[in-house]
Every structure is written in C-alpha cells, then in structure tokens.
C-alpha cells in the first residue's frame, strides 16, 4: 500500500515541486542546491524513497512504480492537487511513472541525467558491475567514477560511496536496479505533451546527451535538452548554481 514518504519541505510558493533522488543517494544529495532556491515562488518537497535515508526501514517491493505511488501519497498528505516533478537519474524514471499515474496533476517534469522511459539495457559485464554494487563498495566507486567521466577527486568519490552505503538498504538498492534498468514504458509516454526539461552532463559516460536526444527528445514533443559542459552524471553536486538557475527558469515558464 502506498504511503507518504519522509521528506523536507522548503519554501512557501504556490508552485509545488516534488524532488526525487538518484540510486546512490537519499534526499541529502540535494543539500547543495537548497540555499540558492527561490522559496517565494516555489515549494519544494525532497523525499526519501523506501529503503533510503529516513525510510530505510520501510518494507516494500522497491520498484519505480511503487515509488511513484508513494510520491502521489506524499502529495495527497501535503494537499498538493498539482505539482511538478524533478528527478535525478533513477528519479527521472520515477517521475515518468508519476506522470502516467496522474497526468492531470503534473505541471512539468525536470530530469537530471534521467533514466529514459525505456530503461537502461546493460551488457553482461555492466550488469555484473551494477548488480554487485549492492554488496561491494568498490563497484559503487567504479560506477560513480565512470559516470562522472573519470575526472572528479578521489576524496569526493570516496565520500559519495560512503554516503550511498550509509543511506541505503542493500536489498532495496539491488531491487531498484532491476526496476529502473529493466522497465520499459516508452510506448505509454510517447507523444505526451507535458513540458519536459532534460539536463545532461557532457562528461556522463552512462547517460550522455546523445542518449537523451534519442529517447526523451524523441518521445516528448515539448522536451528541451540543456547540457552542462562541466558536469557528468551528478549535476546537483558538480554545478549546483547553474542547475538551480536552469531548473527554476524552466519551472517558472510552466
């Protein structure tokens, strides 16, 4: 059964925005954005998905569909009839499930290096790396290093791995992989006219800008793509000011 998720609410503006974290982190991954956000125009809700952060002990199936139901339950608990959704990586797939389940409630979507609606087919070697990350911190480090373009400092990589291990349940982490990588809903969202902003990183080796063009921009007629020249997969931490400015400019137009 869906239930409201642990969350922080920032701002009192009339435009509500649900913010969904990535596979490696809980809602704290957005902490670097919060001091610079427009809290007069927007009201942001940063959630912890089941198995993460304050929701580590919450039992569930740990699927992107279940996560979308929980987001809707959170919006209901906060009495938000209409909202936008910002999703980072795995959170971008979850945002699309929210759109499918409640199309009349979603104003717009923002995907930050977001997983496409087709999921992410992985070859055998990549699957072993990603699946093993649930149990092996070295696998997590290799993935984070690869997806950020092998260009970020070792201490940051190590801190990101440490946070991901501490903030997530390993079984939930592993089960989410099956769901975000293996779920394909693109036939259901193709042609959806909801405004969409896709933020990509030029150094992202897993979901590079060309993947965004071949998926998100093909399936959403009102989608636009912006590429950060100085970021990989982790724009909220790599280019926080640019990400806030870009996102809020888009939200203000929607």
From TrEMBL:
One of its GO terms (molecular function) is catalytic activity. It comes from Actinopolyspora xinjiangensis. InterPro entries: AB_hydrolase_1 (IPR000073), AB_hydrolase_fold (IPR029058), AB_hydrolase_sf (IPR050266). Residues 16-125 form the AB hydrolase-1 domain. This is Pimeloyl-ACP methyl ester carboxylesterase.
């Amino acid at each position: 059964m869906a239930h409201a998720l642990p969350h922080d609410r920032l701002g009192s503006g009339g435009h509500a925005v649900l913010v969904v974290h990535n596979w490696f982190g809980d809602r704290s991954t957005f902490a670097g954005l919060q001091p610079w956000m427009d809290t007069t125009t927007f009201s942001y809700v940063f959630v912890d998905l089941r198995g993460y952060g304050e929701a580590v002990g919450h039992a569930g199936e740990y699927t992107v569909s279940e996560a979308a139901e929980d987001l809707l339950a959170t919006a209901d608990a906060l009495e938000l009839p209409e909202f936008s959704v910002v999703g980072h990586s795995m959170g971008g797939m979850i945002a699309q499930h929210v759109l499918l389940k409640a199309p009349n409630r979603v104003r717009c979507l923002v995907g930050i290096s977001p997983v496409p609606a087709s999921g992410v087919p992985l070859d055998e070697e990549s699957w072993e790396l990603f699946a093993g990350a649930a149990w092996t911190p070295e696998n997590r480090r290799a993935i984070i290093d690869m997806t950020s373009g092998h260009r970020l400092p070792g201490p940051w990589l190590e801190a990101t791995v440490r946070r991901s291990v501490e903030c997530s349940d390993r079984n939930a982490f592993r089960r989410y992989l099956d769901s975000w990588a293996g779920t394909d809903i693109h036939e259901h969202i193709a042609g959806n006219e909801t405004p969409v902003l896709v933020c990509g990183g030029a150094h992202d080796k897993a979901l590079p800008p060309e993947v965004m063009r071949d998926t998100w921009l093909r399936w959403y007629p009102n989608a636009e793509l912006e590429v950060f020249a100085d970021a990989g997969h982790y724009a909220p931490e790599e280019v926080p000011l640019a990400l806030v400015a870009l996102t809020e400019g888009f939200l203000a137009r929607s």
